[in-house]
Amino acid sequence: LVSFNYRHQGGFDQLDVGFHYDSHPITYGVSYRQLLWKENPAQSANHDAIALLMGYSDANWRLGYSYDFTISDLSWGVTDGGHELTLTYTWFTPSHLRKTRPRILPCAKF
Fold first, then answer.
1. Cβ contacts of 47-53, under 8 Å, gap ≥ 24
2. Which of 16, 29, 78, 80 could form a disulfide with 20 if both were Cys (CB 3.0 to 4.6 A apart)?
């Protein structure tokens, strides 16, 4: 599953591009984050981070772990990256009680 996410707020823009592979019950993934500044053309792109992801899913539970490797100038003595741990529980509504139709496009679970 290929994913991308573009965010814009004020003079700040961010682009995330990723790839996730589901081999139930394990999910693997990698993504790339780039920061874009439109107001300062000299800093048109900042290669910010590469994130590795691994997750486990079973019935209604999901457990995920990711680590962001900082590849920008921020990594010089300040930070080398960050850890993230997620625990998710999903309950399902029977189809005859749903108010909206199911999604047509597949979404990443982590």
1. 47/71, 47/72, 48/14, 48/72, 48/74, 49/81, 51/18, 53/20, 53/27, 53/28, 53/29, 53/110
2. 29
